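Example 483, ligand adenosine-5'-triphosphate.
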Amino acid sequence: MPKSARDILLVEDDAAIATVIIAALEDEGFAITHCASIAERDRLLAEGSFGVMLTDVILEDGDGLASLARVREQAPDLPVIVLSAQNTLDTAVRASESEAFEYFPKPFDLDELVHAVRQAWAQSAKLASDDPEKPGEGEGETARMPLVGRSPAMQTVYRMITRVLRNDLTVLITGESGTGKELVAEAIHELGSRRTGPFVAVNTAAIPADLVESELFGHEKGAFTGAIAQAIGKFEQAHGGTLFLDEIGDMPPEAQTRLLRALQSGRIRRVGGRQEIAVNVRIVAATNRDLAPMIAAGTFREDLFYRLNVVPIELPPLRERREDIGALAQHFLVLAAEDGLPRRHLTPEAIARLEQRSWRGNVRELRNVVYRLALMAREERIDVETLTDIIGEEVVTATGGQRMVEEGFGPALAAWLASETPPSGTLYHRALAAFEKPLIEHALGRTGGNQLRAAELLGINRNTLRKRIGELGLEPDRFSQTS
Ligand SMILES: Nc1ncnc2c1ncn2[C@@H]1O[C@H](COP(=O)(O)OP(=O)(O)OP(=O)(O)O)[C@@H](O)[C@H]1O
Ligand SMILES: [Mg+2]
């Protein structure tokens, strides 16, 4: 059967999905040839030429992505659109490494798919004679993917990640504390074309304001009091690799200006130095602050924001992707076991219970909770009862929290007084401790256990904080960011 120029090959073993796609594309005037296996696909490709191929990943006789090399041999210019229900970062990355024209995690928007087919069609017509060079098979890249979660919200993140792997565009990652911003920055480096270069992270919030510039750009001997020797800054250290500027919202104004200049010129000058040094770095920045009001208030430079925000990646809070909680919890149980804690497993009911919590501390809080469970649970199986024994019921529900916001701490105090009968003469200190403990835990959680930053956040003296941590029996290490 001779193929017309508008022929499309659809490799999909789910009959229902195939029917929907065929109907939508036929409406657009395309002619569709449909098959459900890799063997049939190869036979059809040998027989005739197609303008675009759409393929599922898991097929009855193999992996539609892994076998794409064979398709490339027969039809090097054929644009391939990948459809997949395997919604992992791994699939997204493999699709992008196979040079797929587009990748659509299921369920996908039919209109978007039709649009992509039209674009692929146009490219295929134009590229007929052009043969871009292709990198080797991406088979070796599928080791262990750092990011867990298959929710639709994470699909958007994965697609954005795959779009920046083969270029050096500046990325700005935003999202609440503990949502995985640093992990995404690492993934971009590890999976991207700069993976053989260094990955250098700078946490702006953890450096005293007057040392930020020297930290970033280095300094010459004698540049300021205490500069006893020349020092190389993070920019120079990251040469050829990726520079991760964490907590960018906390950068002092002068450092912002110098950073902007460095980004514009691709050159830096060490503090106290004369000569400009060219640096080749890919910038990934992150912040858990909302930069818009800071720009409005003049504390964050608008021009710097536009320089950084070339590719924005927004990480969703955990409460907006509850379907990922189970997979994340299992993942952390495995990590905990690798870290030497006993191997435990959660019953489906216990996971359902975890899914209901509010997770203000996002994935970091979930990770800490799971480690605590692995440490404390006496039996291999963690059921709802063990779970509540160890981590308790959540005190403030979403609606209770709203009431607190409206009515202040009064109702919460009344509830606490009703449940406590402290000996006379201790009431004030006990109430204070009951209030202070979650507050300090919150501050430590937000700063990853960094006491200096927690003290700044709270607006109290660092020594006072350290003393209270001891008195309240808190363990700052529990909040530490070592992932
Ligand atoms: N999708 C994920 N899959 C697996 N682990 C994750 C995921 N997201 C976050 N984590 C883990 O959760 C912890 C917190 O993540 P990370 O440090 O990247 O958060 P962050 O957004 O940078 O937070 P902060 O704003 O407080 O710096 C880390 O231990 C990280 O490994
Ligand atoms: Mg971080």
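Summary: The pocket of adenosine-5'-triphosphate (ligand 1) is lined by residues 147-149, 175, 177-183, 288, 328, 331, 363-364, 367, 448, 481, 483 (CB under 6 Å).
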